[in-house]
Structures are given as structure tokens and as C-alpha cells.
């Protein structure tokens, strides 16, 4: 056999071995692929349905997602919510055939697959819930307390720029304001105030309702007596109170109070200097006093004696004139 023939035979054997190796490899790969296909067909799957959300996006995105689950173990899926501008994430709503669960974590992780107590089973629905971010308003004044003035400052702040702000007093129509202000002419009573704010996206926020009380003390004006001298020991006591009072009284010369129910006359005042103060209590517990009036009582002028003296004076004058005329007449006759 020639050398060329031997080389050809050797090459042929090498080709046959290579072909056998290639065939064996193909068979092995085919078996592996078949095993994977069979395994995929036999292994259970879970379907995760992500619903579309208003105000943001999710990962996984909206749609159905098929998850291959091991026979024994469950599969954990991470959920991530991303709010749009002007929105904030609230919670995840996760439902299956038997329960609905709310999760506040973001990101959140859930289990699907074999229905262990912590798993949502082979079919579940997921939705992220978002809400509009309204301006947050902090009402600093008034506070939940009692004020002794008829005007109170309205002071508030917002956590972001507001296009419009307003307040409502006692549930009445909103009053637009551009910032802090003073609420005036409040009546004595219980009041409440609420502040609203609207941002550029149309989100409206509201503050907490503040309840407060206006309790302006009454003012007392004494009309009589005045700061003067009286010749009568009985002096009229006349006064005005600008607000309802549930208790009134007066004190003469800093003595104990005498209860009042209205205007009266103070009788039997002694001669000399006196002072008078009126007090009032209202239903809110305020106790106020008027200005103190200082006056005096003197002896009345003796009008009878003055009259007698006047008559005597007239008689004396008349008598003097009579003597004068008589004397003047006598001298006139004597000259004639």
C-alpha cells in the first residue's frame, strides 16, 4: 500500500470519528433542550397582572406578567412606584381570589406561587395608588383660646407656592387674601376659621379648623354723678354698659359693693367728698370697673334768708329815697 493510500485511509477515519462526535453532541443538546421544554411545560406558572395607575408609573409596568414558579418555592417580585409631578405615592393594592392587601412600602416585595400564608398564589392583581399633592397649610393664629379683643391676627404658612389663598370664618363664604391679615369686628362668641390654598396644578389644600372665643370685656360709662359739687344729698346714678353683663354693682367711698339692676338714686349722702365706681361681670368671667367719679356734697345755699335780706334791702332803699324826696321838697318850698 502506498503512502498516499495510507494517508487517505487515516483521514477517512478521522472524519468518521468527528462525525460521530458531532452526532453525539447534537443528540445531547437535543435532549437538554427537550428537557427544558418539558420542564417549562410541567412547572407551574403564576400570572401577575399590573393595573394602570393614575398619577404615576410602575415597575413592572402595566400588563400581564407570567412567572415560572418552582414546585416547592415561591417567587418574590419587587414592585416600584414612581409618582408623576404633583402626585405622591399612597399604597399598593394587591388582590387575589381570597384577599386584598394594602402595602405602604415603596418599593415593596410580594411572593407569588404556591399559596403559602405569605404568598398571593398563582394569580394576583397589583395596582399602585397615587394622590394629588395639595398645599399643606399651617395656621399659626388664631389659636384654640379666648381673646379679649374684637380683632385677631390671621397668620398662616404653606409648604409650597400657592396661586390663591382664602379663609372662611364661621362657615361663611371664602374671603380671598394675599397673605396674613387681621380679622376685625368679631362679636363676643365662639368662632372658627379655616384657610384654603390652591397651587398651579389646581390642587386645593385646607388647614385644620381652629376654634376660638372672642370675649371682649364690657365698658362702663357713668353719666351721673359727674366730677362736681352737689347741694342735694340724693344723687342720681345713671350709667351705660356696652355689652351684656350678668352682674352689676357700685361702690361708694370704696365700701362694699351694692348690687345694681339698672339706674338708681343714691340717697342720704353725707356732706363732704365722695367717690363712686361701678363694676360689671360678664358671662366669660371678665370683671371690669368704670372710671372712678369724685364728687362732693355741700350745705345747700339758704334761699329763705337771702329772700328776707333782699326784702329788707328793698325797704331800706325805698325809705332812703322817701327821706331824700321829702327833704328835697322842703328845701324847694323854703326857697320859694
Could you give a quick summary of the protein structure above?
The protein is an alpha+beta fold and 336 residues long.
Report on this structure.
This protein is an alpha+beta fold and 336 residues long. It has three domains: 45-132, no CATH class; 137-214, Immunoglobulins (Immunoglobulin-like, Sandwich); 220-297, Immunoglobulins (Immunoglobulin-like). It has two helices and 26 strands. The protein has helices at residues 3-42, 303-335; strands at 45-50, 56-59, 63-68, 75-83, 87-95, 100-103, 108-112, 123-132, 137-141, 146-147, 152-158, 164-169, 175-177, 181-183, 189-198, 204-206, 210-214, 220-224, 229-230, 235-241, 247-252, 258-260, 264-266, 272-281, 287-289, 293-297. The strands form six sheets. Strands 10, 12, 13, 15, 16 and 17 form a six-stranded mixed beta sheet that branches. Strands 19, 21, 22, 24, 25 and 26 form a six-stranded mixed beta sheet that branches. Strands 3-1-8-5-6 form a five-stranded mixed beta sheet, with no helix packed on it. Strand 24 (272-281) and strand 25 (287-289) form a beta hairpin.
Order of helices and strands: HEEEEEEEEEEEEEEEEEEEEEEEEEEH
**Total DSSP E strands:** 26
Main β-sheet description? 6 strands, mixed
Average pLDDT metric: 85
Determine the fraction of residues in helical runs and give it as a percent range: 10-25%
User: What is the 3D shape?
Assistant: rod-shaped
Number of domains: 3
How many H/I helices? 2
Low-confidence stretches: 34-41
Report the structural category. Answer: alpha+beta
